[in-house]
Amino acid sequence: MEPKRTKSEDPRTQNSAYGNPQRNGFVVVLVLCMVMLLSVLLLGFNYESRTNLNVVDGVRKSEQALNCARAGLNIAIAIIRDTNDIHTNKTLLDLISGEKTFAVGNGECSMTITEENSRLNVNLLKDKDGKLDRTRTEQLLRLIDLLNREQTGHSHIGYGLVPSIIDWTDSDDEVTHLPFIQRENMGAESSYYSKLQVPYRCRNALLDTTEELLLVKGITQEVFERICDYVTVYGDGRININSASRQVIMCLSEKMDVVLAQMIIDRREFNPFDSITELRDVPGMTDSIYYTIKKTATIGSTDQYYHVISQGNVDHLSRTTSAILRRNMKTKNVEVVLYKEL
What we know:
alpha/beta; five-stranded antiparallel β-sheet; elongated
């Protein structure tokens, strides 16, 4: 007779009590995998949620920064409307130089205001009758000479861009030839531009913005960056002697040197010119230079054009607006000619 087994000694009873070890292990692994999967999904959802929140917060702050920039533009409009000559108002110089920031709501803003009338107008190299304006053409040629001398380490700027600008802005299809230039004296019309890798036609009309110069033969991005601070497409072409840069002043006469140009700047910083005739009192000024400058210089045009760059900042986000403003000296009205958000 076999001995009786107790309940604890029966293998079948043990399996019934504790289950199959392999099956239990599989269940544990499955549960762990599900926990890990849920953890990954939860982390992914959390990351996506935080990313979306950051994007939304970034968009909100970007709009706030843009509003700060727009506020700066409105302040610039008020300054230009209420000030006859902003560059002779010493209390405004820090504000409009871009070096000083001021609070706007939850952010801050800075602005620069430059007068377009203090630059050479490349739209006026020919007069209304289509005749070459020799004086303004030679001023632009002198600017090229000056930049080539001052900005060492850069590639040479050729004279050819001058007749090319003339051809781009005049209404005819005849290639301009400047006989008083010995080299690089030919312009370009549609016959040239149509043969480029990406062909286009010559505009044969006045430039709307200085950036359009990048389409003109001979004007690369580098050349544009070197000349853009000294040229404009706005105004009557008369240079405001109270705000023109040293380089532009030196372009007004072939006999103007750096010493005399600096004397003019020093004088206007101490006491801005009230009339062009006061230039005769500047040490070193000769009758020849004075009468040459008098042809294209002024202390205030009927329409004044200003370039305003306003930058708004909120935390580490910034937005910038760029605008061209025209102020009528008689009516004091300020008009936005061009507006861009950068």
